[in-house]
Amino acid sequence: MRYVSVVCLLFSSLSWADGIVVDKVYHPYVMPYEKEVEWRLVSRQTDQGNILAQRFGVGGAISETLSLELYGVGERDDNGDFGLSAYEAELRWQLVEQGRYWADWGALFEIEKQHRQDSYEITSGLLFEKEFGQTSLTMNAFAVYEWGNDIDNEWETEFRAQYRYRLRSAFQPSIELYSGEDFLGVGPGFIGLHRYDGQHQLKWEAGFISEVGHGGKDHSFRLALEFEF
Q1: What SS3 class is residue 9?
Q2: DSSP-assigned states of every residue in 107-148
Q3: What is the distance of C-alpha 179 from the center of its chain?
Q4: Threshold 0.85, pTM exceeds
Q5: In this structure, how many other beta carbons lie within 10 angstroms of the beta carbon of residue 136?
Q6: Domain definitions of the chain by residue range
Q7: For the domain 2-228, what is the CATH superfamily, name and number?
Q8: Would 71 disulfide with which of 51, 57, 170, 207, CB 3.0-4.6 Å?
Q9: What is the tens place of the pLDDT at every residue in 3-28?
């Protein structure tokens, strides 16, 4: 665990990003020839009200180590109406063969454009995973650059971590941590996987994250469904 502590301290020393920080913790793996359909929801409740965002994506592996996915992002506005807010393209790259080295590594690259706005965001980062017996530690460290006429040009960073107990495929409890600008949140998470014939499988994730870096109410609930075939 000494190595885990060193890596955690290294990544947590990064500055933090704003916006909705609680989202998916990415694993550094790509399944060859897989295709997937994904839906994600994040609901953030603060003293100022509720922020609700959903994301729908389709994509799959384009080689043995690369996966490409396209997303449409929807958010609820101040009037309570829900509509399209952004588009995203995401590329994941598995850097090493799973289990070959001390830890597994991957990379993620993402570009996002706000709907009907001159506002862009590009994200790049490292994905890390290491197994310890029946547990797994997964960490993501991202650098984010925002630019455009409708947004301030700036650099930001994010960090996400998940420590998971692989009790069984259908139920794997975890502890998750997220950091961003003026945000440090931690809470329980749950992961499940149901396999069908062949490569068909359904993965679900849920988590409840509470902000612990300052006073006031700030709770986020995340839910994700991913069907791979």
Answers
A1: helix
A2: EEEEEEEETTSS-EEEEEEEEEEEEETTEEEEEEEEEEEEES
A3: 12
A4: yes
A5: 19
A6: 2-228
A7: monomeric porin ompg (2.40.160.40)
A8: 57
A9: 444 444 444 434 333 457 999 999 99
